[in-house]
Amino acid sequence: MTSLWIDASSGASGDMLLGALVGAGVPLEVLQAAIDDVSPEPVTLRVEAVTRNGLAATRVHVEAAESHHHRTWRDVRAMLGGHDRARAVFERLAVAEGAVHATTPEEVHFHEVGALDAIADVVGVCAGFEHLAASAVTVSPVAVGSGTVRAAHGTLPVPPPAVVELLRGVPSYAGPVAREMCTPTGAALLTGLATAWGPQPLLTTTAVGVGAGGRDPEGHANVLRLLVGGSGPGTSTELVLETNVDDLDPRLWPGVLDALLAAGAADAWLTPVLMKKGRPAHTLHVLATPARADACREVVFRETTAIGLRSYAVDKHALDRTMVDVVVGGQVVAVKVARLAGRVVNAQPEYDDVARAAAALGRPAQEVLAEVRAAYGRIV
Predict the structure, then answer these.
(1) Could you list the residue range(s) of the whole structural domain that residue 254 is in?
(2) pLDDT tens, residue by residue, 315-351
(3) Do both 41 and 73 map to the same domain?
(4) Alpha-carbon gap, residue 43 to 116, rounded angstroms
């Protein structure tokens, strides 16, 4: 299982991500072929070994003819064709720019990000991540910078409005220097690629890419790092969603937990707590993959009285498991078998099956449970 960690503590841009990918071993030909497939004019990638504040890094130059063509989202979408991930990244940009300028995404005119080099950045980076085929991409909190920056609309505060819009719901902070550290293209790529946010997860690193930004400020390494590795079988990065609730009728909790599991949560549970002013309450915990987190949040807000949620990434370690059917009194009961390094370390009958079999046989559930365990012991 391949996992990636992006260290954006020095910000992010398209060329920094391209450099990190090449530095981590993604063939330059993979990136160039994707760009050639969409660009109406020649665009060439050139790799340079550089240092940033004494740190060795890879700089990827995107060389294209200078253009002042302000493309619309419709223009860019037509260029991208079947490059679905790159199209999704540019759609994020269009939606963010539309929100900032009070217009619809279709009416957005891209300026800097509509140039061929920016389109090449997005297409190349997306192709590189598709080449790595990672099952999880964790991104650190993003350094965005401070101060002001000159743009097509004049002098803008840092982070620029489009970056702020793109990073809604994402951990970010000013960072070490007073300049623009995260570009709109970088923000769109990070939010389009990430499956989780936080510090480096459990990872056995096999490759490291250090992508250089164009500047080399004194006292600060202007680089983005990409760690490529394996988290081992059964290991994944998931999210824990939590909220404290003190005003929900307790009879509703079983239905809430069932709804969360139906929405794709890996687990959901309650912890009794004592809140301020001595109020008894429950903390609701939900474990979910990043892909199912939004659906689980919706269930919490719809089915409970919670008006806020906190979340954090965790490393989940799961044993390999299989299901084995055991027949007791003509009733089929599934037994979940867990293995560590190929050796059985746990075997548990599914209790719903045990209860159903006990009801059908008119026998106590504890007797059926004991008989299922004995029957499983005879077949292994």
Answers:
(1) 235-317
(2) 888 888 899 999 999 999 999 999 888 889 999 999 9
(3) yes
(4) 8
